[in-house]
Each structure stands twice: as C-alpha cells, then as structure tokens.
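Write out this protein's structure.
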Amino acid sequence: MDDGAHPLETAESALRVQPGVVPSRRRVAPPRRAPEPTVEELVAGIRGGDRALLGRALTLVESSRPDHRRKAGELLAAVAPWTGRAHRVGISGIPGVGKSTFIEALGMLLVERGQRVAVLAIDPSSDLSGGSILGDKTRMERLARHPSALVRPTPCGGWLGGVARGTRESILVCEAAGMDVVFVETVGVGQSETQVASMVDFFLLLMVAGAGDELQGIKRGIMELADGLVVNKADGDNVAPARLAAAQYRSALGLLRPVTPGWMARVQTCSAVTGDGIEDVWEMIAEHRHVLESSDQLEEKRRRQALYWMKQSVEHLLVDSFYRNPRVADCLEETRRQVVAGEVSPFVAAERLVALATGEVAAEGGES
C-alpha cells in the first residue's frame, strides 16, 4: 500500500466493482421464528405474570385454525382451576356514546384501588385485512400503560352479537392470569350485540341524552337484558338533559321484567371526562354481584351461559366445516350464480349445498 494513500480512499477502492466482474451476492437467511410455546409454558406464563405469554395465549384462543383450537382446548382445561373468580362486566352502547372513555375512567378507579383489570375491546373488523379498525388500545392510553391493567383490542371478525370468536375463552384466560375485573366492550352496532349478556355477570348499557328518541323500539331488545343503564356525558350544559333522559329510562325499565330476581335494573348518570358518578356506577355493579352471590344465582347463571355458548360454538363450527368442505367449494360459485340469476331459489340452493356437505341426496323437485 502506498504510504501516501489516505485510509478512506484505500477502503473505497477496495469496495469499487471492477468492469466485467459480477459481485458475489451473499444470501441472508430469514430470521428464525421462535417456536410456539407449549401449553405448559403458556400456563406458567399466565400464572406468573408474563405479559408476552399471556398475549400469546389470548391469540391462541381467538384463532380459528383447527390445530390452534385443539391446543386452546388443552390450555383452557389446564387453567380451569383458576377461573371464575372475576367480575365479568359487559358494556354496550351506540357508537359515539363514549364507551372507551367510560371504561378507562372506571378501570383507572379500580386499579388505583389495587385491583387488576382486563379490557377485551371488541372492534369492528376491516373487510380487507380482517384486523381491528378503531384500536381501543390507542384510545385508553392511561389504562393501557398501567401495570395492573390489560387492554386487548380484538377484531370481531364479522361475528354477530358484538363479540369476537373466542371472547368467552379470553375471559377465562384473563381470570387465570389473576384479573379481578374483566370488561367486555362491544362493537356498538345495535340489537345484535345482546349476545354479550350471555357471557357476563353484569350487562351495562351506556347511553347519552339527545341521541334521538330514547325509547325507540330498536333499543328495547338490549334494554330488556340490561342490569344497569348509565347516561354518560352528564357534564356542563348536558347535566339537565342527562337527568331527564335518565328519568325516561327509569320509567321504561319499570315496565320490563327484571333480568335477575331480586334486582331491579338501575339508571344512573355520569361523566367519564370529569369522573362524576363513576364511583357510583361501580358501587351499583358490586351490589348486583352481592345479590347474585347471596341468592346462589351467580353459579346458576354461569352454568346456563356455558350451555348457551356450547350451542353457539357447535353452530359456528358446523358453518366453518361446511365452507371448508371440498364438495361444497367446488360448486359454491355456480350455485351462487344460479341464485342471483333466479334459476333456483335460495332455499333449494341451500338444501343442495347441505346435502353435498353431509353426503345425503337432496330431495328431487322443489322450486327451481
């Protein structure tokens, strides 16, 4: 090397490609994926406070893959001894009612009292990606950062009922992780959300004043299932309208049959922004829990819910199996074309597809 050459110039000349010489291309191996944790490792992580393994467990029970469903079943059986102790609270309401702000205010009240809180925030699903659209974790920043809280946004995946596949199983996993309270925040799209009432101990309907006719029949189906109703945003100039709306709701609920014997659904007002009334809401939920436990209704309610969700799971598994059936897949598009063209009725088309899936012979004749 010439002693007068600058070190940087020498390095640049070494890297310079000579004409006609093809530089060698070193193939970089893709990063190796970490092996999936075993059921035993997941259980140890859940019980030991490992947030990463808790997240993996929740992802597992939400999955629709057949191998994941089998593994999820093993996991749920393993954690069963540590489930059932938490307050399960479902929160529903129309879009814009402030569910996320309300849950964060209530959750912060509880974690500051030393309780551990999980929020299963069910988001609308993107038709393109299948993922969450709203991302409640970004809208509950204070609660999500708290070490005693878990905020889990989950896409509903197009399921009716305002809940996602595996929501009930996710509740059990959170209970096994030592959560004292599990909130289930639903999508907020109307009466189809009532299924959430079949997986929680207390079903709370969040409303606001001035959102149209407060006593519309479209909301009656949800109101009939509510254990409590809270009029949110009762602050500033909206205090008086909120109180008026609460009085109207009390009159309406007085005409409905109580969901829980010995408990008449309560109506309260609050402001999730100022915190006014939030503590009263939790006292209402705690009092309802006391009524259930003192009258031996809690365990009976959960047994009924377990049977209901077994039935729901069977129906969804049958639908999944139907669409995965290769015989159905082979003729599904042609059958759809025939229905759209009016060549066959939807009912007859469905009969033929089910017959293909089950191996039976569809009835001859019928409408065509």
